[in-house]
Every structure is written in structure tokens, then in C-alpha cells.
Amino acid sequence: MTTFKPADFYRENTFDPLRVLSLCTGIGGDAAAFLRADIAHELVAVAEFDPLASAVLAQKFPTVPNLGDINAITNWKDYHGKIDLLIAGIPCQPYSAAGKQRGASDRRDLSIAVAKIIREVRPRFLVIENVPQFETVQGGRPFRRFIASIRDAGYAVGHRVIDASNFVAQRRKRLFICGHRGTANCSPAQILAFAAGGERRAHTSSAASLSFAAGAAGGSFVLHPPRLGTMMASGSGMNRPSLRGHEMDFLIVQDFPGHGLVVRRPTPLEALRAQGFPDNWLDEVRHRGKPLTNSQKYRLVGNSWPVPVAAAILSEVNRRWVMAA
Fold it and tell me: Which pTM was predicted?
């Protein structure tokens, strides 16, 4: 087990770490969210069967057991009473608009298995993620069965589609399901509504310390970020602007004389940043003795959930349910 204990969490030793079971963990976007939100937690176990994702988890969390395929595990009741929060990123392929949307008839659908695990483990709190189509495929029947199964187990449940564009530089809508056992001073729907607001930060052009040398004129001025890409992609020779700065911008601009503006593929590092992961999340990860290829990194990062979105939800769960209990 790996235990994270942010110092400011233990005010008068009132709270214990949140004991977490992570299902369909991927590369650990939920674990990264706990770190981002600075929530004291104990990652009791993860369950991930993909070999590449498992290699990432083994490198990031070497002492945390990986239970593998959740369908192959029969001793879930051993975790009864030992888990505070169950978090799961149900595979999206059976419901994604990019697939055939076979729903519960797709052998890759794990929603039934996750509901069964919830009933056997009986965690205090739930956070579950899937694509928005989970709510509508096959007339919404698989979704309604899933929600009914959880409610029948004694949970108050709410759901909401949240767009990652409120948090990171990409549009990615995901359906989040939140639930709790017992009484709480805040409903699951309210938890998700509070979390959906996104992170708001004010940026000033002076903080970026941007300076442009305006060719032969020799002048310099501060430019706001939206104009930066236009300026840097225009001009040639002595009239081409040059950029000096103390911080890198995330604009992707590439230009070749005579060929216009070229839109290139983001690098794996940029993909990590677009999902809100730390830059070094995939560093030093090896699979079968070899570093991950760029294609492997793209797939792994693309299948994860945006870290800041998960962090916002977990922060609300922690603040309004865990610490208020």
C-alpha cells in the first residue's frame, strides 16, 4: 500500500487517510488527481489488466497491488469494510460514439461487474466515469439498470456530464456518477454541480514577460497570448518577430515559408499536459524492458480521464462528505 499524507490535512489528527480502491485504473489519472487535490489517501489496491497501463502503475506505485482483470476476481468481499472510496473509470468502448455502441452486450462492458463489486465491497463513497453515451445507448436501459443496482444497495446517486474544457485545453465530455451510503449534508448532484465549475485563474500579460523585437524598428511591446500565435506565424526575414520570454507558452505554431500554417500533432508531453498530468508521469516507464513508444503514450494518455476534472470532484467529495462526516 502507498499512503500520501499532506501535512495540512491532519489538523489536530482528526482525519485518517481516505482508503481508496481504484478499478479500471488505466495509468492512474485518479491517483494523480488525489495528489493534485492534496488529499490524504491510502491507495489500497488498483485493478488494471492492460499490460502497458499496468507497467505505468507498477512504476508509479510499486507497493500497491494490481488485482488485474476485475472479472477474474472472486474475493471482493475481503475488502468489505476496508474501503472508504471506490473509484472506477469504466471502459468506454461499448458506449462510445466511435464504436458500435453494443452496450451491455459488448464483452468489454464492465458496468455490471463494477455494480457487483460495489454491492460486495460496500464503500462509503463512489466516483465513476464513462462517456456520455453510457446514459443513452440502447435506450438508456444499461445505464438505468446500473444506477438502480447501486441505489438498491443503499446508495444515494447522482450523475452529470462535465466538459473538460472548463479545466484543460481540450473539449472532452464525460459522464460522472457520484454516490454515498448513509446520510450526508450535500447530495451527489450538488457535489458534481460544485465540481463542474472548473478552475478559474487570472493571467496577466506582464507575468509572462513577453518581449518582441520588431525587426529593423527595434521596438518591443507586450502582447496578449491570443495574438502571440498570429505574430509568430507571420513575417519573414528581418520582418519576422522574435520572441524572448521566461515562460513557455502552450501555443502550437509551425510555419514554413511558402507553405502556409502547418497544424502538427501534439507531442506526448503536450498530450499529458492537455490531460492535466505532471510532465514526468510516463518518465522511466518500461514495458518488456523497452521505453514506451510515442504511439503507446498517445493511447494510454487518451484513455485516461482529465486529472483536473477528477481532482475537482474528489475535492468536493473530500470537503463536503469525508471531512464533514
Answer: 0.76
